[in-house]
């Protein structure tokens, strides 16, 4: 196993191929974790919009008026009841997607925690693995 000796923080530190691979894995998983958080946030906003639309639909006085519902790039006109069914289906699908994304996020967070412990144990204060706050 080839080791590279680098001067980090005033100390000579051996960085092995395994260490470099762990650092690279940490960087990739950290980027993925950030993507998952953004995706969860977007899905939750979409879910809130569907819930708001559903609430507005319940307040509608005229049950006979056709309601435009967007599917892709096309609007179709549905009855109040049909629109409510479409909204409920979309809501349950989004809830499942959010649940899956949160599960994936938890798995990635566990991997990040394990790698962080290993890397800080080896490099101490010579490595910074903390995410930058935006």
Key features?
two-stranded antiparallel sheet, single chain, 16% strand, 134 residues, alpha+beta
Biggest beta sheet summary: 2 strands, antiparallel
Mean pLDDT: 87
Show unreliable segments: none
- Which class do the helix and strand fractions yield? alpha+beta
Could you give a quick summary of the protein structure above?
With 134 residues, this protein is an alpha+beta fold.
Overview of the structural elements:
The chain is α+β, with helices and mostly antiparallel strands and 134 residues long. Helix content is 64%, strand content 16%. Strands 1-2 form a two-stranded antiparallel ribbon. A two-stranded antiparallel sheet has the order 3-4. α1 runs antiparallel to α2 (80-123). The chain is rod-shaped, with a radius of gyration of 24 Å. The mean pLDDT is 87.
Question: Secondary-structure map with pairings?
Answer:
Elements: E1 3-8, E2 11-16, H1 17-58, E3 67-71, E4 74-78, H2 80-123
Antiparallel strand pairs: 1-2, 3-4
